[in-house]
Amino acid sequence: MQSQSQSPAVEMSELFPYAQGPALRTSQAHDKALEIIWENADSARFSYRWLRDHCACPECRHPMTRERLYMPLEDENFLNARPEASVEDGVLVLRWADGHESRFDAGWLHQRRPESRIDDGVPRAEAWREGFTPAHVPHAEMMGGHEGRREWLTALLRDGLVLLDDGPRELEEVVRIAELFGPMRATNFGARFDVQSKPNPNNAAYTAIGLELHTDLPNWRHPPDIQLLYCLENEAEGGESLFADGFAVAEALRHEAPELFLRLRDTPIDFRFQDEDSDIAVRAPVIEVDDTGRIREVRFNNWIRDTLRLPPEEADAWYEAYLVFWQRLREPRFRVDFALEPGQMVAFDNRRVLHGRGAFDPNTGRRHLQGTYLDIDHLESHLRVLARHATSAAPDTPTTSTNETGVS
C-alpha cells in the first residue's frame, strides 16, 4: 500500500512526524461518531466533539505556539456538533453548522486512532529478570552526539539503571552531564552533593557505614526521579554499590503474597527527615500504583520512617508485609552489585530502583562521589525530541504501535 509523501497534506500543529501512513479511503457517519477508513483497511471511530476540539486551523491552534485557542465552553454548538464530512485529495474535510471548516491529515488521524499508541521513543519500564546486567555507554559517546544519548536514555528509562564509562576524573562533571538534559533538582541537600565520609554528618550517606537498600527522600511529596552518582575516587576497601528493582519486587509480592502486597499498597505511613534546618514529612504507602494497577512508585527508607501511627493489629500486619518485602529486596534475582570505578557514573530511577552500599574503611583510601537529581520529564522530553529527528530521517519507520511492554 502506498504511503503518503514525507510532507504532510495538512499542517496539524504537531512537531512529531505524522505524514507517513496509509491514505484515506472514505468516511462514514454514525450517530455520535465518524468512522474513518484507510486504504490499508484500518478503521477507527472519532466522536464529533473530539474532531471539533482537535481542529488545527490557525483559528483553533496558535500558529506559533501550537497551543489550543478553540474553547468548547464558548461554542454553543459543541455538544451537538455533527459536520458534513468528505474525503478530498486524501484529506478529511469537515464542514460544521456554523460554517467553520476543519481539515485533517490522514497520517495524523491514523497515529491517533484510540487503540494505537504513538511510538515517541520513550520505552516502558521492563522488570529485571534473573541475570540482569545494566547497560554501559561510553562517556565519549554520550557527550559526542545523539546516538550515545539515545542509548543511555533508553536504557535508563527502560531498566531504571545504566552506567556511563570512561569519563574524566574532574570535579563537577556530574553537573555538566546533568545540564545536557535540564536543571538539577535541588533538595535540602543542595542541587549537587558530595558523597564522602565527613565529620558531623546529617545523613547516613556521609558516613562510612553500610547503607541498606533504600530510595532517597521518600519524605517528599514528590521524591526526586533520577539520581546521578559520579565516581571521582574509590580507593577504600569495601563500599560496593548495591541496587534492586523495586518494581520487580513489588510485582513478585503481588503474585506470591497478594495480601501482603495490598497491605503495603493500601496503608499510608509517615516518612520524615529532620535536622537543625529542615523538617520535611509526608504520609504515603510503600507501594503506589496508578489507576490501571501498574506500579508507579516505591518508597522505602528504613532510616526516615517516622512513628508508625497504626492500631496494634494493623501495625503488626503491616510489619509482617514490610519484612517480607525487605527480604525480597535482598534476593539475588532482583539485585545487581558492583564497585564503581573512578570516571564511571551510575544513573538510576530513584522512585523505582533502590540503592545502597557496603561499608568501607576510610583509612584504606579515599572514596568520593558527586551526585545530583534530575526530573524524569526532562529526560523523556530529550528522548522524544531525538525520536522526532530519527523518525524524520527514516521514512519507512512506523510511527505507531499497539504493542506495549511493561513490568510483569
UniProtKB/TrEMBL annotation:
Single GO biological process annotation from the record: carnitine biosynthetic process
Cofactor needs: L-ascorbate; Fe(2+)
Keywords for the protein's UniProt record, in alphabetical order: Dioxygenase, Iron, Metal-binding, Oxidoreductase
Positions of the Gamma-butyrobetaine hydroxylase-like N-terminal domain: 28-110
EC supergroup of this enzyme: oxidoreductase
Protein EC: 1.14.11.1
Gene Ontology molecular-function annotations: gamma-butyrobetaine dioxygenase activity; metal ion binding
Claim: Iron is one of the keywords in the record: yes
Signal peptide residue numbers: none
Domain TauD/TfdA-like: residue ranges: 148-373
Domain of life of the source: Bacteria
Family in the record: Belongs to the gamma-BBH/TMLD family.
Name assigned to this protein: Gamma-butyrobetaine,2-oxoglutarate dioxygenase
